[in-house]
Design the sequence.
């Protein structure tokens, strides 16, 4: 299964009740959006299976879901610890100027003058704004993801992001 075609959307963190419902730790925002992306590819111990979402809802800080073919607590327990993957094509098209984090990971980051800063390793959510974690070997830079301020240009086709950032910072 090519990794570029799939996104990690959450994990099955527990069971809910006796009818086979599972607790989900969702990576989506808002958390309950994970229920919209059916089917899921559920992955555990290097085995992957496709499971349709029948229903679910937010339950506190988690999400609970009813899955096709999972009818009792024992069947749900087998899924605990599984990663939930969805196909990228299941996501709505991003609006112009908006990006999914997964699209930014792996982009080469350079300054306006062409100084290579590294590659986007991952992003952090800070509340005020997202932060790019850019790695170049052992060097790690935290760059605020502020479009038209620190992030000047994103070219997904060429895999390049241009930033206004001091290479020594």
Sequence:
């Amino acid at each position: 299964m090519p990794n570029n075609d799939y996104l990690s959307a959450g994990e099955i963190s527990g069971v809910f009740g006796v009818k086979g419902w599972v607790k989900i730790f969702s990576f989506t925002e808002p958390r309950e959006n994970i229920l919209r992306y059916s089917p899921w590819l559920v992955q555990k111990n290097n085995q992957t299976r496709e499971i349709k979402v029948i229903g679910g809802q937010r339950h506190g800080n988690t999400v609970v879901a009813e899955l096709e073919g999972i009818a009792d607590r024992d069947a749900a327990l087998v899924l605990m610890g599984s990663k939930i993957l969805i196909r990228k094509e299941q996501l709505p098209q991003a609006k112009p100027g908006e990006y999914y984090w997964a699209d930014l990971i792996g982009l080469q980051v350079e300054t306006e003058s062409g100084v290579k800063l590294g590659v986007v390793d991952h992003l952090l959510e800070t509340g005020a704004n997202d932060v790019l974690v850019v790695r170049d070997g052992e060097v790690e830079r935290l760059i605020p993801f502020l479009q038209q301020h620190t992030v000047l240009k994103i070219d997904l086709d060429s895999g390049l992001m241009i930033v206004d950032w001091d290479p020594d910072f």
The mean pLDDT is 92. The longest strand covers residues 6-16.
